[in-house]
Amino acid sequence: MGERLYRKNQPEKKKLLPHSYALSLKDKVVWGTWERSGKRVRDYNLYTGVLGTAYLLFKSYQVTRNEDDLKLCLEIVEACDVASRDSERVTFICGYAGVCALGAVAAKRFGDDQLRDHYLARFREIRLPSDLPYELLYGRAGYLWACLFLNKHIGSESVSSERMRSVVEEIFRAGRQLGNRGTCPLMYEWHGKRYWGAAHGLAGIMNVLMHMELEPDEIKDVKGTLSYMIQNRFPSGNYLSSEGSESDRLVHWCHGAPGVALTLVKAAQVFKTKEFVEAAMEAGEVVWNRGLLKRVGICHGISGNTYVFLSLYRLTGKPEYLYRAKAFASFLLDKSEKLISEGKMHRGDRPFSLFEGIGGMVYMFLDMNDPTQALFPGYEL
Ligand SMILES: [Zn+2]
């Protein structure tokens, strides 16, 4: 293959063309999640379902400006809109807040104001149940992420600041109840465990909170919680998957150093302290030294860990991080198909999905087109 994922010597302003292999894989994802099933939605969500394909198509449209991708994105979101009518899940990644938020943003890009307003109206109807957890995939943090996505892409008051503020206060109230002022100021439980990672735990919740306007005492608690995690990580530098865990095994976005690294990059940008810059870089070392995972996806696979280096590159501008991202991406490009067919790599439980399958890998390949703008889908904003 003559093309490269990243062409080093191109003039900066020239629009780079995406890798043709990435675009053909994108078509394969559309086939595997949408066309093959006769365009019926079995699973609507962004994580394992067909909304992930719509998100990938939106990314592809952003890179190529091919309107067919945007139209197909909207067609899939419309089917998800119908399929999620009885859903009680209210987050971006696993719930119908993701359907409404992506629908509104894609409709706006398409110039269809009526459709945009339809999705915005449905989003504003979302009511959070009182027993809703706090983490990112199913909880309040995941609802807030959808609000942030809308406000970034549609306009700052698409979701009112009062609405978001009340959810932020609920998150602090609950976190302080389980937290401890002297050690870890904020703590949460999900299914009886006190998780640390991005998907279900502290890293994911702190990441969302750092995008909000916070009071000084709230900022202190977020910083204190992150410092507690840094001070109590494993001797290897990896992060616990949950409070008290002694198993230094998982190095994933969902559990372990990669998800925490992305959160620490955000902390470094928001708080501008050396502590968080260094901790982010140290978490990146863990990801590099532990090496390649056996899966391709972004949740617990090589593509997700690639974003750690892209994020550190954005933070520090150090070329070694871009080199590392390219090394991981090139490995996937050259080897993943063969290793999966030989059974040496796992194709993921939902092999075409955005978070577990090749959907996320293709998303990352498209992001490699302009590494300075790469953002972990559903996590970095
Ligand atoms: Zn995972």
TrEMBL record:
State whether keyword Transcription regulation applies. Answer: no
GO molecular function terms attached to this record: metal ion binding
A single Gene Ontology CC annotation of this entry is:
plasma membrane
Give the InterPro entries listed for this entry. 6hp_glycosidase-like_sf, LANC-like, LanC-like_prot_euk
Top-level taxon: Eukaryota
Q: Which GO terms describe its biological process?
A: carbohydrate metabolic process; peptide modification
List the keywords (alphabetical): Metal-binding, Zinc
| Entry-linked Pfam families | LANC_like
Binding site residues for Zn(2+): 254, 299-300
The similarity comment for this entry is:
Belongs to the LanC-like protein family.
Q: What is this protein called in UniProt?
A: Uncharacterized protein
What organism does this protein naturally occur in? Answer: Arabidopsis arenosa (Sand rock-cress)
